[in-house]
Design goal:
Elongation Factor Tu (Ef-tu), domain 3; 6-stranded antiparallel β-barrel; conserved putative lor/sdh protein from methanococcus maripaludis s2 fold; 29% strand; Peptidoglycan-binding protein; 489 residues; 27% helix; disordered N terminus; alpha+beta; 20 strands; 8 helices; 4-stranded antiparallel beta sheet; PGBD-like_sf; PGBDSf; Peptidoglycan-bd-like
């Protein structure tokens, strides 16, 4: 039997090979199915197993390690940079000769001709401003200017003026408190050194002096005429120019009265002239000097401008000393003492060092003014954890002086971070979080220490605290760095 071309044994072998391949694929599929079934079987859980796998783990205490470290306690607050001793600035009276204008314009309506400049540093003898072209000087002294000072005046304000003149190099000839010719000369020389003329008598004063002098002359003349008629009578009365007429007792009494009257008139005229001359001369008008308790000072704010009438407050002057006013909670203020060091830092990183000056209740102090509580604080500095339990949280005003302000000198009204160190540990000490401290029924402090599967109470003495961390010392037990104490259940 013949086979067609291409048929025979070779085709048969091909069919056998193809069958084998199909068998391999089937076996592989069976293996894969079996493996998947096994894996799925391992992942299947009973309802009880599923519930157990979602159950929260058994609760246990929350613990942290005991740490040996150095501890520093600080009070941190926000403060404001200010200048010390602010006080209002005003003129005590007119600048120049007075309220009525003279022919030369002196005493015209008061107008600021050169305004003061805020931020100016004021030294003794400086011109703060000018009014009607006249100067307003600053001098050192605690007695405020309240009147014009001139010949004949006396008092503490005159002594203050004389001492200031002497400091400026113009000797008044004494500082006894009476304004004499030496003081007048010193005032004139001082004004001249500043480019001004001292206040000399006004035209009105000169006219009054002339009138008083004329009154004295007239009184003298009247007395002379009255005296020259004693014991004589005119020819018209006697009819003879050579024979004196006898005077009756009545005439004598009348004449004596006339003489006494003329003498009294002369005495009064001389008294008025002497009194006026005692105050006549070089003066310091009430508005031309401002006495300041401490110089140099700083003109902080200005309330007038050129052309204004300086009838009210013209500004505010402060000392050149820089202070920082801060408000801290009462619990922190209890830790502060007079003389503690404070670190002051601005927002842009500038820093300076200050000293705690006043710790006062809010009711005893006000922002920007001198505190009524100027004595050092006597608050007990108790650096213990019990301070944190104090129930006083009312703000307490704290003033910090800055002897060397450095970059803070130009930072008026700027906010600064205030950091005051209130205590430090003696080297490295054992510390735990405040949350780890518990109080026993007997009032003793203790910590719970986890040791193995048990928790043991260890009584401790609490020391310095800072930022939620507190120093502890074991009291009758042992406590080591690295051991874990319970802070929560």
């Amino acid at each position: 039997m013949s086979h067609p071309e291409g048929a025979g044994p070779s085709r048969f072998g091909s069919r056998i090979g193809s069958g084998r391949r199909r068998l391999g694929v089937v076996v592989s599929a069976v293996v894969l199915v079996g493996t998947g079934g096994w894996f799925a079987g391992t992942q299947v859980q009973s309802p009880a197993d599923a519930a157990a796998s979602h159950r929260a783990p058994k609760a246990g205490p929350v613990t942290v390690s005991v740490v040996r470290q150095s501890l520093t306690a600080s009070v941190v607050a926000t403060g404001s940079v200010e200048f010390a001793s602010p006080r209002p600035l005003s003129l005590a009276g007119p600048v120049g000769s007075g309220a009525s204008a003279g022919a030369d314009g002196e005493g015209a309506e008061q107008r600021v001709t050169k305004a003061p400049v805020a931020g100016t540093k004021i030294k003794e003898g400086d011109v703060l401003m000018t009014v009607n072209g006249r100067p307003v000087f600053a001098l050192g002294g605690s007695v405020p200017m309240y009147r014009a000072l001139g010949p004949g005046t006396s008092g503490d304000d005159v002594t203050q003026l004389q001492k200031a003149l002497k400091r400026l190099g113009f000797d008044p000839g004494g500082t006894g408190g009476t304004y004499g010719q030496g003081t007048a000369t010193a005032v004139a020389d001082w004004y001249k050194s500043k480019g001004y003329d001292a206040q000399e008598p006004s035209p009105t004063d000169q006219q009054q002096l002339g009138s008083l002098e004329q009154a004295v002359s007239a009184a003298q003349e009247t007395l002379l005429i009255t005296n020259s008629g004693a014991g004589t009578a005119s020819s018209s009365e006697t009819g003879s120019s050579s024979t004196p007429a006898p005077q009756s007792s009545t005439d004598k009494q009348v004449h004596e009265i006339q003489v006494k009257s003329a003498q009294k008139a002369l005495d009064l005229a001389n008294g008025a002239l002497s009194s006026f001359k005692a105050t006549y001369g070089t003066k310091v008008p009430a508005g031309e000097v401002v006495f300041l308790p401490k110089l140099p000072a700083r003109l902080d704010k200005v309330s007038v401008k050129t052309g204004d009438t300086p009838s009210a407050q013209i500004g505010t002057v402060t000392s050149s000393d820089v202070v920082v006013q801060a408000a801290v909670p009462g619990t922190d203020a209890q830790l502060l003492r007079h003389g503690m060091t404070a670190r002051l830092t601005t927002a842009d990183g500038k820093s300076a060092q200050g000293t705690v000056d006043v710790v006062a209740d809010d009711s005893d102090s006000s922002s920007g003014t001198e505190s009524a509580a100027t004595a050092p604080s006597t608050t007990d500095d108790t650096n213990s954890a019990s301070d944190s339990a104090a129930d006083s949280t009312a703000a307490v005003q704290v003033r910090i002086t800055v002897p060397e302000p450095g970059p803070l000198a130009g930072e008026a009204e700027a906010a600064v971070k205030v950091t005051i160190k209130v205590g430090a540990s003696d080297g490295k000490v054992l510390t735990v979080p405040m949350a780890a401290i518990h109080t026993s029924s007997d009032g003793r402090a203790r910590v719970k220490v986890e040791r193995g599967d048990a928790v043991t109470d260890v009584h401790v003495t609490v020391g310095l605290s800072a930022a939620g961390i507190v120093e502890v010392k074991p009291d009758g037990g042992t406590l080591e760095a690295g051991e874990r104490v319970v802070v929560g259940e």
